[in-house]
């Protein structure tokens, strides 16, 4: 495999990691699915889904492409790297939540004590 192949793999790996981390970050956001089609929901309950559902299928597509083109070893490297970056971003987000916010923050309470507060910001 040549240099161009390595560039393509690097782009696919970067895309996979970005989509995986983004999926984990946006997974806390819930939305109503099909509000016009099923205004009363299914069986009387609203169909509520996580926003991570929008991007997560892309991780499977990228993993399958890399496995077919570059092999299992490269696909595993990509998945392990994505897992490590997800752990890293989880740690960074936890630190950001603990740090006291500035009183000049325009969104009101800067401390985000709940997922709901983060969604409203």
How would you describe this structure to a colleague?
The chain has helices spanning 3-26, 52-70, 72-98, 115-120, and strands spanning 30-32, 48-50. It is mainly alpha-helical and 121 residues long. The protein has one domain. The mean pLDDT is 85.
Brief digest:
With 121 residues, the protein is mainly alpha-helical.
Which short descriptors sum up this protein?
single chain, 121 residues, mainly alpha, 2 strands, flat
* Largest sheet entry: 2 strands, antiparallel
Approximate helicity band:
55-70%
Q: Kindly state the number of beta strands.
A: 2
User: Average pLDDT value?
Assistant: 85
- How many angstroms separate the termini? 47 Å
Q: Number of domains in the coordinates? A: 1
> Using only CA atoms, what is the Rg?
19 Å
